[in-house]
């Protein structure tokens, strides 16, 4: 850890090493002598820092998350490693920034894309498994399936996938809810598949005899969509990509959240007497947004607000389960999001019209896909009753740090080449230091990279070209906003919403940050 921090921050390295060493040794002994806590990471999809009641949302009520934050630590400077799902989740599970592996992980993967994490490499679940944990994932996956040599066969053994990279159990949907195939996959099998009605998937051409949203808008039961989201209609909602067959296996949008809750509880109950790690990928508030019946109209701010209330319910059910099983005190729960929010993302679901003044980014600039703060700053709450002192912390922390931080807490081993971008922030998490052990973070959007260092933020000139997923149009305003013609420098202490480009006033600061960004990019472990 110290070596990595030394590389990431050469100027402070020696002093930091000297200061940290005694602390680290004492703390290692502390952690090793206590029983291994269970670990739950709840990752929502496109939730903003302004979306929760305790963070300023009015209208949308989130009592369970408010309680979780009030009884735990809420990081105001928590980051997703990327502004889209695939690279962000890749970083969480590998402790490596996804952009270091450009070809495989940099983009938003299709539902038939191959697995982007090689089986056999060190991953967060594998590290925990070796430390004695039972590991599972429920919900959104979006890291690809299959070996890439042959097209993944959704009618046979769907692998390699989660089970080949460290999970003992998985109950996932392959990509996003707006991408086919619209099915659940449990371990290696599509759930509820009738072998006489095999699944076929294509992102290249329409292989289905079923109508698309473009052909039959009258069949859409919820809302219309842009062209990219107007391929095969599944459950009255048109999706990205074409799908044929698998009718008995198709998920119902109105049951996704309940399934996440049921499968998570089942996993926890079965493993209550052993240390477990459960990664829960909640689908909300990503598009297409469909609230389950009890949550329809509950937020007063339209369907996007309703599905955030639904997130809060799911969190409440998980927390209640921990209490009921008497394991809450021995369970760390981390709640965050894979990237920042966006309102319109392909479906005309009235998220913009029904907002009633709610601001999902809490005023931060930008949205999902970009490198402004609104794209990568995410809710970041850690709850560990009895161990973590309730507080609000302004220390920097990123999801990429989960690997090294949890390794320390769980008594796991981080092999020399593993998790190159992950810092052990266990002392920050546990409130054992007030020192900011992470002094910077990289923001990764579809246009490229930016650097936050302390209060400063540097965004080089970038072009929106990379990885927006099949069928997406780079000229779409959502993506075109990533075209930045002049480099930008902001001071977040005085200008948190990145309004005032002060690069002309501080050219040396900009040069320093540009050089640091380059050296982090060049860093090879
Ligand atoms: C984009 C989709 C968007 C969403 C995203 C992935 C457009 C036009 N299309 O290509 O709807 O599916 O991919 O989101 O924006 S993520 O959160 O999983 O990365
Ligand atoms: Ca996302």
Description of the molecule:
- α1 (2-8) packs antiparallel against α2 and α7 (256-270) packs parallel to α8.
- The chain has helices spanning 2-8, 13-33, 63-70, 85-94, 102-105, 124-130, 256-270, 302-324, 373-376, 402-410, 426-429, 477-480, 507-522; strands at residues 38-44, 73-75, 78-79, 134-140, 169-173, 185-186, 189-190, 200-202, 233-234, 237-238, 242-244, 276-281, 331-337, 381-383, 391-393, 397-398, 440-445, 448-453, 456-459, 488-491.
- It is 25% helix and 15% strand.
- With 525 residues, the protein is an alpha/beta fold.
- It has 2 domains: 37-432, 3-Layer(aba) Sandwich (Alkaline Phosphatase, subunit A), CATH 3.40.720; 441-523, Arylsulfatase, C-terminal domain (2-Layer Sandwich), CATH 3.30.1120.10.
- It has 13 helices and 20 strands.
- A 10-stranded mixed sheet has the order 7-6-5-4-12-1-13-14-2-15, sandwiched between helices. Strands 17-18-19-20 form a 4-stranded antiparallel sheet.
- Calcium ion binds at residues 45-46, 85, 286, 338-339.
